[in-house]
Write a structure and sequence with these properties.
With 256 residues, this protein is an alpha/beta fold. The chain has 2 domains: 47 residues; 185 residues, Rossmann fold, CATH 3.40.50.150. The protein has a 7-stranded mixed β-sheet, with helices on both faces. A two-stranded antiparallel sheet has the order 1-2. Bound molecules: S-adenosylmethionine (SAM).
């Protein structure tokens, strides 16, 4: 068991058997055939390069268990920095956009911790919208959210008025797309690729969102580890860069 799965074996044991790895391995334990079969299926999916979160069907995010499905980006730990900023700084009663919402992880975590707020969640991908809805419903948050299809590069004419815009857009450059590890390649390229220099979504959202704010602009972006200076250059307003726990640029806050 451990020889084939290595470091991932303990996590699989909890998932499949609800028991620790050492307990399952100890003498005298009988593991039901059905569990052994599921284990074999998981092993072959993960060893073929499929992300573990797609195999398990969920991932921890903030204090939630976000449902994950192939076709939609797996929420990352780094994105919790954006969520923490939003929870701290959204004005009372705010309506916020979770733009490029993917699984809905950002909206779900913020709505849960800020029960005074409401969200408009949008994405170009129907698979993402369906998963976002499922995650919001799972935590009883769907009655404070609207979920709809929206193309950032299309018309913004009818976009609803908001107090703040939260967004983790695709931000990987063309050069970095070439270097992605095998498991990340299993996630949708549409969720990763941000144009030649990785900044296409920031440019268009900063420009087109101007008309959407009820008051002064308030944008909280997730950014790539080396994109802080570029975002500061793009922003027409004062801009603050926050770092993640590894000391990398991770969030850009723009306040009009
Ligand atoms: C980096 S993922 C972020 C997902 C989620 N917010 C998160 O933090 O895990 C970017 C999302 O942008 C969406 N997307 C890609 N192109 C888009 C477009 N033109 N308009 C709107 N959303 C788009 C993708 O479908 C994907 O769900």
């Amino acid at each position: 068991m451990s020889a084939r799965l290595g470091d991932e074996a303990p996590a699989f044991c909890w998932y499949l058997f609800d028991r620790s790895f050492s307990d399952v391995r100890s003498d005298g334990n009988e593991v039901p055939d059905e569990c052994v079969n599921r284990y074999g299926e998981c092993v072959s999916r993960v060893t073929s390069g499929e992300p573990m979160q797609y195999v398990f069907g969920y991932t921890p995010f903030y204090d939630l268990q976000i449902v994950c499905r192939p076709g939609v980006l797996i929420p990352r730990y780094d994105t919790e920095v954006l969520v923490g900023e939003a929870i701290k700084t959204l004005p009372p009663g705010a309506v916020f956009a979770d733009m490029c919402c993917g699984s809905g992880c950002i909206a779900a975590a913020v709505l849960r911790h800020r029960p005074d707020t409401r969200a408009v969640c949008c994405d170009i991908s129907e698979e993402a919208l369906s998963l976002a809805w499922d995650n919001l419903e799972k935590y009883g948050l769907a009655d404070r959210a609207r979920v709809f299809r929206f193309d950032v590069f299309g018309s913004w004419e009818s976009f609803p008025l908001i107090d703040a815009l939260l967004c983790n857009p695709p931000y990987i450059s063309a050069a970095d797309m070439e270097k992605l590890p095998e498991n990340v390649r299993r996630e949708p390229a549409i969720a990763l690729y941000g144009g030649e220099d990785g900044l296409d979504f920031y440019r268009v959202i900063i420009e087109k969102s101007k008309r959407c704010f009820k008051g002064p602009a308030h944008i909280i972006f997730e950014i790539g580890y080396d994109q802080g200076a570029a975002l500061t250059g793009l922003s027409p307003h004062p801009c603050t860069i926050k770092k993640d726990l590894s000391g990398n640029d991770r969030v850009c806050i723009i306040r009009g």
